Structures are given as structure tokens and as C-alpha cells.
Amino acid sequence: MPDTIEYSHVTAPPPGETIEVHPGIHWLRMPLPFQLDHINLWLLEDGEGWTIVDTGLYDETTVALWQQILTTRLNGKPVTRVLVTHFHPDHVGMAGWLCENLNVRLWMTETEWLWARSWSLDTDPTVYDHQAAFLKTTGCPDTLLAATRHDSPRYPSLVSPVPRAFTRLREGQSVEIGGRRWEIIIGRGHAPEHACLHCPELSLMISGDQVLPKITPIVAVEINEPDANPLRDFLATIEKLRNVPDGIDILPSHNFPFFGLHGRLDALKDHHDNRLAQFRAACTSPMTAMDLSNAIFTRPMDSQNVTFAIGETVAHLNYLCWRGSITRTERNDGIFLYSPN
């Protein structure tokens, strides 16, 4: 099904500036040093203060931009809380710095906070050995394993210290911000307990990475849970989000705000249905995840993107195994093989 989105705003705020996109809702952007080169963040007027939603990556550039924002864009009112949608470093990276310097509480779902704390404290170099052990089960060649060990970013270096205390966000909870009710809708698959914020009064939803207007959110198996089925969770979230009104403005973490939620949900479902069909068709004999990944992801990629592709491949293969379309067996050398049923 074709996308039916319509952008509600097509001019992004310059670094260090903000744009008011709805009454009391201000949009800012922070740069990212990746192929995906930006993240959208949100400042919500909250009575006599401000609520920050998502924070950007922890680096010198983002620190300087936040100092500029805090000095010039808050009209002399204090920040009262920092709310983070999920644990990925471009979202939680500056949260600890902001909470410490502004003396405010972090608001997150429990699982996202736990993952952020765990990953940020895991500075043991053997984490690369653990990653290599996972990748080896996929049939990843030794040359790529070596490159991955060298290229992989360390999560702790991308985030400021995650606060030890937080306020928990829960499914179905209503949070009052600026005298308005914001409903917490939990999304899964891209992250374990991703918080979306729906404001019926303003007819908008801050979707984080759960729903993006153009790119498909990464749905990948992580090395700490190799047998997970995140695609099942992601597809279930698509169906749950159909309960959100179609005509509202979606404020995503990347690209531009847009209308057309249900059409975008259809497109995301179609994408994964098609990808599942591709993997199933490619699996004609016992094959490794690396074999199948190479069959589907054919464009040239650096080692970092190869690991993303493998994570997505295993997510789709785990889903197909769960559905009974293929079977996974383990060779004597520990490499998994996937066969058609």
C-alpha cells in the first residue's frame, strides 16, 4: 500500500533554535555524527516551567547547543523534568547531563531505564567478545568480526551518566504537561518499552522512533537477547497504534512532522510482510543468517551497517521460526542454519 503521509512542517529549526509547531510545543534539532544526521527533540511548556522530551547524543557539540537553548529559548522559565522515549543513545545521551545540571528528575519506562543503566555501565572490553560470539553464530566471516570489533561504538561513550533514580512511565498512564493530558502508549520492537506521548487535546503524538515518516525503524535482535522476537512485538504495536486517530499530527524523532498515521502504519506492515516473504523465498536450503542477509541486503555497506543488517535479518528469521515457516538447527561449530519447512 502506498504511503499517504503529508508533512505538517517542512522547515526544520536551525541548530540552537526552536520552532513552535503547536501551542506550547517547540521543536528543536540536534546533529548526529552518523548517516542519519539529526534527531528531533521537543520542549513542552509546562506551567511555570518546561518539560524536555528526548535529549540528543552526549558530545561537545550537543552540550554547547543545549547550553545555548537553555540560555536563549526558555524565556527565563526552568526545566522541570526530562522525559525520554527510549534507551538509544541519541535519545537518552544528554539526559544525565541535563538532569544533573538542572537538578530535575528523569522520566522513562522501567525497561528503557534499566537498559540505559546497564549498557552505560558496561565498560568491560569483553563486550566485544560477546558481540563477536553472537555474530559468529550467524556465519559472519572472521574478517568482518575483526572489523566489527574495531568499528563498533561503545554505548558508554555516547551517553552521560544515566541517573540512578527516575520516575516510571507506564502503559495507559496519563501525564499532565502544561495543563493537558498526555497518554503514554508503549511501543515495542524497535526498543523494549518505547514511550509514545499522545495529546488528544492538541491532536498530536510524539512518536519517537516507533513511527517515522520515511525510514523504517530498525527492528533487530540485540546481542543480549539473541532469541528475542522483536518483529512480533513491532507488528503487534502497529495494530495497537491503529486505535490512535488517523488525523493527528505525528511528531517523529527523525525527518519532519506529518499527517497520515494509519497509512504509514500500513506501509510499515507491508514493508515487513514483504521482507518476510523475501527471506522465506531465499531460504531454499540450509543457510546461515549471513547467507540470507547477503541475499536480501545487496547494496555495499560498511561493517557497522552490516551488523545492523544482520540484526534485522535475525529478527525476521526468528519471526519465521516462531511462525513455523522455517526451522533453525545448530551445527557442530555453533553456527545456526535455517531450513524451509
List the helices and strands and how they pair.
Elements: E1 6-7, E2 19-22, E3 25-31, E4 38-46, E5 49-53, H1 60-72, E6 79-83, H2 89-92, H3 95-102, E7 105-109, H4 110-121, H5 127-137, H6 142-151, H7 155-158, E8 166-169, E9 174-177, E10 180-187, E11 194-199, E12 204-208, H8 230-241, E13 249-252, E14 258-259, H9 261-282, H10 289-296, H11 303-323, E15 326-330, E16 336-340
Parallel strand pairs: 5-6, 6-7, 7-8, 12-13
Antiparallel strand pairs: 1-14, 2-3, 3-4, 4-5, 9-10, 10-11, 11-12, 15-16
Could you explain how this protein is built, in words?
The structure is a single chain. By secondary structure, the protein is of the alpha/beta class. It is 37% helix and 23% strand. The chain has helices at 60-72, 89-92, 95-102, 110-121, 127-137, 142-151, 155-158, 230-241, 261-282, 289-296, 303-323, and strands spanning 6-7, 19-22, 25-31, 38-46, 49-53, 79-83, 105-109, 166-169, 174-177, 180-187, 194-199, 204-208, 249-252, 258-259, 326-330, 336-340. The strands form 4 sheets. It has a 7-stranded mixed beta sheet with strand order 2-3-4-5-6-7-8. Helix 5 packs antiparallel against helix 6 (142-151), helix 9 (261-282) crosses helix 10 and helix 10 crosses helix 11. The protein is globular. The mean pLDDT is 95.
What's this model, at a glance?
The chain has 341 residues and is α/β, with parallel strands linked by helices.
User: What is the CATH topology assignment of the domain at 6-123 and 155-274?
Assistant: Metallo-beta-lactamase, Chain A
The radius of gyration computed from the alpha-carbon positions, rounded to a whole number of angstroms, is 20 Å
- Terminal Cα span: 29 Å
Q: Strand order, biggest sheet?
A: 2-3-4-5-6-7-8
Number of strands: 16
Give the second-level CATH assignment, the architecture of the domain at 6-123 and 155-274: 4-Layer Sandwich
Specify the number of helices. Answer: 11
Main beta sheet strand tally, sense and closure = 7 strands, mixed
Strand fraction band? 15-25%
